[in-house]
Amino acid sequence: MKPTDALLKKLKHHSHLDSGDIAAIRKLGCRFEALLPGADFIRQGDKPKESAIVIEGMVARYHTLKNGGRQYLSLHIAGDWPDAQGLFLEQMDHSVCAVGNASLCAIPHSDLIKLFRARPAVGFAVWRETLIDAAIFREAITNNSSRTGVARLAHFFSELFFRSNANDLVTNNSCLLPFNQTQIGETLGMSIATVHRHLQELRKTKAADLRSGRLIVTDRVRLFSIGDFSSQYLHARVQRRI
Amino acid sequence: MKPTDALLKKLKHHSHLDSGDIAAIRKLGCRFEALLPGADFIRQGDKPKESAIVIEGMVARYHTLKNGGRQYLSLHIAGDWPDAQGLFLEQMDHSVCAVGNASLCAIPHSDLIKLFRARPAVGFAVWRETLIDAAIFREAITNNSSRTGVARLAHFFSELFFRSNANDLVTNNSCLLPFNQTQIGETLGMSIATVHRHLQELRKTKAADLRSGRLIVTDRVRLFSIGDFSSQYLHARVQRRI
DNA sequence: CGGAATGTTGATATGCCTCAACTAAAGTGG
DNA sequence: CCACTTTAGTTGAGGCATATCAACATTCCG
Questions:
Q1: In the list A14, A19, B227, B239, which could disulfide-bond B154, CB 3.0-4.6 Å?
Q2: How many CB atoms are closer than 10 A to CB B117?
Q3: pTM of this prediction?
């Protein structure tokens, strides 16, 4: 499978592309890069000249705090485009790192812009992708600001599981999540002790579990319900033709 | 002044547009709409056929919670485009309402898409605008998840003040903010009592105050410092003097 | 096998929520 | 213009969720 196929598959989830668009995307050249767990792909302040698609593994975006700590902002799985924003924002306002082993494929901005000019539909599809990103950020605001501890954790799990499933990355009701409890805390704005206690709650109610870097969803309906999760904001249906 | 001029001014802050682009934008037709305080402009679930620029006043985006409460997601001032995402996301995942009196100018999606096809640079500029939006959401995640109460409030004030200033909406060190303490609480994920206490703290330290629907910034440097505010994430290429 | 990282659990401290009472300000009708 | 009503702001008391800290268990990995 060509690296760009992962992207193509994703775009097709929500956008109509004609055969010319598809051919143009498949013709894009890209630079493959493998990352070790925790390694940064780009850092806050960088001025990237390319944008990358996740090929394998998981990648996270995060803010670095004044005290050196982190606030994780989003997780990205195969097919995602964690730094598409770099296309039009000169400087990175956050960093991107690998969570577990990960590999990406970086495409030069100049090639992409050229493609968007020649084939507006491709640009609109990628634009839509960045808008879905924004919708996910909005939901994270709501999650971290107005839900109880367990609900927050359950919602975080729900979204990741749903998105993994949409990208065909779920096997045996489980998906990749090589995050430790500290990192979950840095995502949800809670201490490690609290993460642990809420995680136990989810285990006890047999909704979900986290083991050896994988999220196991024992009872999807219950998990979604605890997390007050509704997938509407992920805009997963094929959108209208433009 | 033409309604589209407000938008034009904003786009020029970060994007280069040639005279053809500018002329094309100025040729856009738009439907003017005035809103009473609190009135919704669009609701979660709607499928808008147009996108609107804020002409006057202030507008807010919010999620409606299961219990009927609200989580405010962002504030928008004159020149902002609170629902540009509707261009490529069929269904609204949140609502937009007026905060105080506000007026908007709605442009049909079809006209915009046509313009983006004819003049990619305009599309890229608007795209960039939506990417800055996303950066603001990211910062809100960090703000609401990992800063102390006072810092959270101070950061919220700082951002609004900085953005208002960038749009020439600051007079006498004050800018519009017709929000009551309850609404601030629904923005920052804190109770009204806590908002009040932190607000008093900011008053006491003479950093900022909130009176009759306006935010008064008494000591900008101190406010920014308390709020750990740095404007980098706003990607204002032309950073104005305050 | 030993050391490091991660997970687990309890005790204590604290920031914030909830509730309730009260005050001040803004709007309304006579 | 004043009396009345409503809304917003203010403040204290009590309780709860979560942070913090510390000790220990477990798993991972060279």
A1: B227
A2: 15
A3: 0.94
